[in-house]
Design goal:
three-stranded mixed sheet, 13% strand, 181 residues, 3 strands, alpha+beta
């Protein structure tokens, strides 16, 4: 027998956001307020239950169960929503950067974490990406995707070029510019 398919976490989040937008559009103010209060109460209830679960796991786990739960995209998002994620934001951002570093190095690039100022992460791109807009955009996109997956609370990744790095030299073929004769 096949296991029932589960909706993707991104789809579940999109569904909640869509329903929240519909809630905001309701014409009846008192009904909208009651629905919002109900939603807040449900979040508090589930948050309190999750907090107890995390406490029980922490008391009995060698760390492997907590790591597995934190590694699950949906569970990780829920834990983060309630301020219960076992891995700190800086550690999750640094881990995401380390996961992407081999890809950056394969393009003769590198990255330095400049600052985390929630909801923004500032990075400094180094290496061959300097001065090449398409290469820089590709590397920045890879970093953004990894960081937002590991830390959904991050809304913006700003990547700047290394100010100490020399721009690449432009090679000009003079022979093709000289008159032939």
């Amino acid at each position: 027998m096949l296991a029932p398919s589960r909706p993707a976490p991104a789809q579940l989040v999109a569904d909640v956001e869509r329903l929240l937008e519909r809630l905001d559009e309701l014409p009846d103010g008192p009904a909208r307020e009651v629905a919002g209060d109900l939603l807040a109460a449900l979040l508090a209830l589930y948050g309190a239950g999750l907090e107890r679960m995390v406490e029980e796991i922490a008391a009995r786990d060698d760390g492997s169960l907590a790591a597995a739960l934190a590694g699950d995209e949906l569970v990780s998002h829920m834990l983060m929503l309630h301020g219960l994620h076992p891995v700190s934001l800086p550690d999750r951002v640094r881990g995401a950067i380390e996961d992407v570093r081999p890809y950056l190095e394969s393009h003769a690039g590198n990255v330095e974490l400049v600052a985390i100022e929630e909801p923004t992460v500032r990075l400094r791109l180094q290496g061959s990406c300097h001065g090449c807009p398409s290469s820089q955009a590709t590397l920045k996109l890879a970093l953004e995707e990894a960081i937002v997956k590991a830390a959904p609370e991050i809304e913006q990744v700003i990547a700047e070029e290394d100010p100490h790095e020399e721009p690449p030299l432009l090679q000009i073929e003079w022979a093709s510019c000289l008159p032939r004769g």
